[in-house]
């Protein structure tokens, strides 16, 4: 019963995003359409980083590295593997194109997840600042390593990746990311992650395998960063310059602005931070100066960001609560 | 003759040059209520930390029901049935009291990650059971009205009670209480003593506590070990300890 | 063999620069547990301050290159950056001192971005050429190794500054107060040490050393531009971590090792890996011995 309802919901969602994409292409000017696509990609990045930083309380600032892995793995898959698997003329079929793209996205996500595991496993022994520096270092190493692989273009960038991403795909991706991370956060396992954030020693004393959970959060976060990277790679020209330390910091700022630990906050932060530079475009030489000053002021005046750890709540039908024991029992 | 529930054998913990605990021998039978006392800095919390896996002992053995567990990771030791409270309560401050207890149900519950992500019927069922168990525990400890309040908003005494309630959700065999009476007035202390005796009965626990409040120690402990500068200087029943000249010299002096 | 010593000499010169910058990182981390992301940009401001001072004083044309004027320019830029460092601490870091680590980190990033972009706005993005405040000469050392008098100046000035700093930390009251505050801020303040003022002095000192590094780099690599602080800043930071972040002798040793490693890699492997070696060192240190060569392992009290 629930399964049928859920599948219908999924199909409705797919129809909705396809519809939105169609409307967007018709009604919006291409520049705004493009900004929306980038917004949604950043939403995926922000939500996935928030899982690690805001929910599990780990200090990771190398997210761009995982985005890069996903981007390049999926692009390489599309350019090299897909014509072999689906035949060189596959692009004439819409279904095959979509199917191949979905696979490419999954390849990107999985590749990043593996990278996340390899980085996360040794790093999770470290605390606080040290963890931050290690994730930063790994992010840079990944980028420099990719820069030196000629098969994906090296310093010239990866030419020839077909543009497959559109508003439907990114909205779908963002929606799925949100649902997965929200379900996770409210679940049995999500509580363990929150416990680790609140007090790791107490969590361990209650039997929670903290290292295993930290690595798991890291891997899931990396997976979705890879998905975001795959979507990005099939939209704009792919070059390692898009995945520098600055990109990692931008994502950190998104979740801090929205409120670390708040999922709706991350969505807000991602949208604001993608849109703001466009809004400030008029004062382009001063733009980054204003941006950096805003950042400093935000940290001094409201470091918990817009929503802190709360979620943006809309008045809606409440989910049934867990049954409470009656006084007689 | 079954082995004691907890057995410390020549336990030593050294930090750099500092011998925090030296060659400590201590046995606690199943169901007993033990006490660990001594001046500040005597090494008592270090012993707790060694038992629970926060510190790795430099040498010696820690046996639970005859099986060694020294040096194992903290969460593994917890899964074997050892629970503890801390000198100042280490609650998950931002989370609700209910969540604090639900997290402690982790050891004896569980669903696969995939089940949680897709919210399968199995995971929903498990969540309901955990919530029911946790609510019941809160009720037993008189904390039901705080169920959805943030743990940090509780008065200090209730925070300590919550911490104890939380440990019981892990269904432990051995409960270590680190200065449970700290900061309590005489009425609260009385209530605490009742509580400790009560939960020992109800949950079939073995309890070991660290305390400075002599009323508590002499009132409920059956077997006391006295530490001074990391070394055990006396051991025995409350009466024996009260009269031991070494203890009086090192520690007791005045009765509180 | 000559190649080895040549790279060694280059490495020592650059290593001294890294050491000077690393000292600022390590002192601020020791006292505030803050990674001062903006420190590399203070070094950049130092280079530019020296540039403008030299131009204003008319130093650096072939006819009026003199060590005395060069020293004045150096001192001037050190003073300017000391003031800058103190201003940054007061305006940006002090308000967030009691906040979480990630808040302080992001504030530091904000300051760094601000300095870089203000630099682009004020100085212009195109590179400037540092005047030759000391006339260049190449010297041949035994073994055929070629060094410039600039490189020797770099090493000499760095050594003098580092010795001076060490004496200051060990012998003067303020220096001892700095060590006390780094060890335990609350205890130091309970003992009557004015911690706010000590923190300010620490920033001033670290920034002055970074300015000196900027001046010295202007000598050896005359092309300066507003983003020049990013890579050296990161490398100097890694050097501080390598030596043990919070340890002053560690920063000096780490800086030297970083410079030497970099030139060995450039000489024997390839110059494309020049920047990557810093990150490799970082990862290796953090995974094997996070406390670095001279750092202390701090265990958390439970």
- In round numbers, the mean pLDDT of chain C is 88
Beta fraction of chain C: under 5%
What is the 3D shape of chain C?
Answer: globular
Percentage of β-strand residues of chain A: under 5%
Poorly predicted regions of chain A are: 318-329
Radius of gyration of chain C: 19 Å
Oligomeric status: heterotrimer
Topology, number of strands of chain A = 0
Taking the sheet with the most strands of chain C, its summary is:
2 strands, antiparallel
Summary of the model, kept short:
The complex is a heterotrimer of chains A (about 325), B (about 260) and C (about 300). By secondary structure, chain A is mainly α.
Architecture overview:
The complex is a heterotrimer of chains A (329), B (256) and C (302). Chain A has 329 residues and is mostly helical. Chain A has helices at residues 2-27, 30-55, 63-86, 94-123, 128-147, 167-185, 188-198, 200-205, 210-233, 245-258, 263-279, 284-301. The model of chain A is unreliable at 318-329 (pLDDT under 50). Chain B is of the alpha/beta class and 256 residues long. The N and C termini of chain B lie far apart (39 Å). Chain C is built from eleven helices and four strands; from the N terminus they run ααααβββααααβααα. Helices cover 71% and strands 4% of the residues of chain C. The A-B interface holds A 2, 6, 180, 183-184, 187-192, 194-195, 198-199, 201-210, 216, 309, 322-325 and B 52-54, 73-75, 78-79, 83-84, 86, 90-95, 99, 102-104, 106-107, 109-111, 113, 116-119, 121, 123, 126-128, 130-132, 135-136, 139, 166-167, 170.
Question: Could you name the key traits of this structure?
Answer:
heterotrimer; A: 329 residues; mainly alpha; 12 helices; 0% strand; globular; disordered C terminus; B: 256 residues; alpha/beta; Rossmann fold; 2 domains; 10 strands
